[in-house]
Amino acid sequence: MVDYVFLGRSGLKISNLIYGNWLTHGSQVEESAAFASVKAALDAGITTFDTADVYANGTAELVLGKALRSEPRESLEILTKVYWPTGRRRHNDAGLSRKHIMESIDSSLQRLGTDYVDVYQAHRYDVETPIEETMQAFADVVRAGKALYIGVSEWTAEQIKYAHDFSRELGFQVISNQPQYNMLYRVIEPEVIPMSEKCGVQQIVWSPMAQGVLSGKYKVGKKPPKGSRATDKKGGARTIQRFMSDEILTAVESLKSVADELGISRAQLAIAWTLQNDNVAAAIIGASRPEQVAENAVAADVVIPAELMSRIDEILAGVIIDDPRLTWENAPHERPDITR
Question: Where's the NADP-dependent oxidoreductase domain (predicted)?
Answer without folding.
Answer: 17-316
